[in-house]
Write a structure and sequence with these properties.
163 residues, 23% strand, Glyco_hydro18_cat, Glycosyl_Hydrlase_18, chitinase, endochitinase activity, carbohydrate metabolism
């Protein structure tokens, strides 16, 4: 999130979309895909975070009412990994697209949720299949909803559900 957007937003009535997911796309480590905050215990698993981007725009006098915040309703899978913060090789199978789980297909059975309150992110890790899926648990979604209500954006959009 950089460039001329803050300047442009001052001269237009339109909104700005901020995608608060797919934050792990360029990572070589199994990491959170939709964390709102930076992790203090494992910064490598949160290479980017939503709060830093939003705060930057607000510091440039962009009104929070101009933001339409995108949040995911799907899980992103990392394959052949030893867990969060470790290298991965490929993605899990996913029910319709490799590496993607619709929210309705989560949580994966027999695997315990892991929630990081500092970064506001959650995931499941299956040590048998060596697959990690980053997605929002109910706990993460509630905390994000509270943060969003306090921010007072222009709107919210949920992305990623195919079926």
């Amino acid at each position: 999130m950089a460039g001329r957007q803050p300047t442009l937003s001052l001269s237009t009535d339109s909104c700005m979309s901020s995608r608060a997911y797919q934050l792990s796309d360029n990572s070589t480590l199994a990491s959170h895909q939709a964390n709102f905050f930076r992790s203090t215990s494992g910064p490598a698993v949160t290479p980017f975070d939503t709060q830093t981007g939003i705060k930057y725009y607000l510091s440039q006098n962009v009104s929070s009412a101009k933001f339409v915040l995108g949040v995911p309703i799907y899980g992103r899978s990392f394959g052949a990994t030893d867990g969060l913060g470790n290298p991965f090789n490929g993605v899990g199978k996913g029910p319709w697209e490799a590496g993607i789980y619709d929210y309705k297909d989560l949580p994966l059975s027999g695997v315990v949720d892991n929630y990081d309150d500092v970064s506001c992110a959650s995931y499941k890790y299956d040590a048998t299949t060596r697959e990690l899926v980053s997605y929002d648990t109910i706990e993460a979604a509630k905390r994000k909803a509270t943060w969003i209500q306090e921010m007072k954006p222009g709107g919210i959009v949920m992305g990623g559900q195919r079926r």
